[in-house]
Amino acid sequence: NRATLGRVLFYDKSLSSDKSVSCATCHKQELAFSDNVAFSPGAEGKVTTRNSIALGSVINFRLYYGDEVFNGIPFFWDNRANTIQEQSRGTLANPNEMNMHMSQVQSRVNSLEYYKPLTKKAYGK
């Protein structure tokens, strides 16, 4: 299912340019999916310009702001992404974070055998 695919993507270090970090590197489950450093680690030994936002609080946005506002709540500390899709693309492409262009991410995922059954089960393809 899609939740399983999402979980595998979240923890997969293969989605960074040098295969050293995953989303979970900076969004640690035990810290409300955040981290405890001022600047989060990125690929190629780089560091981010800010620490990661606690993803554990994202679900509370809907409760606090309501459904009509939830879809427009910006992501990142500087509010530069308006959707989760923009946020994920921004993180993957950021040279200080995952350092991957989306075409590289797609190629990498397509080359990894363990994604084939996960994608088929999630999307029927």
Q: What would your notes on this structure say?
A:
This protein is mainly alpha-helical and 125 residues long. The chain has helices spanning 2-11, 23-26, 58-65, 67-70, 84-93, 102-111, 115-123. It has seven helices and no strands. The mean pLDDT is 85. α1 runs antiparallel to α7. The chain is 44% helix and 0% strand.
- Gross morphology: globular
Individual helix count: 7
User: Which band does the percent of strand residues land in?
Assistant: under 5%
Q: What fraction, in percent, of the residue positions are helical?
A: 40-55%
Distance between the termini: 12 Å
Structural class of the secondary elements?
mainly alpha
Order of helices and strands: HHHHHHH
Give the biggest beta sheet: none
Instruction: Catalogue the unreliable spans.
Output: none
What's the β-strand tally?
0
Overall pLDDT: 85
C-alpha-based Rg, rounded: 15 Å
Give the helices and strands, then pairings.
Elements: H1 2-11, H2 23-26, H3 58-65, H4 67-70, H5 84-93, H6 102-111, H7 115-123
Helix pairs in contact: 1-7
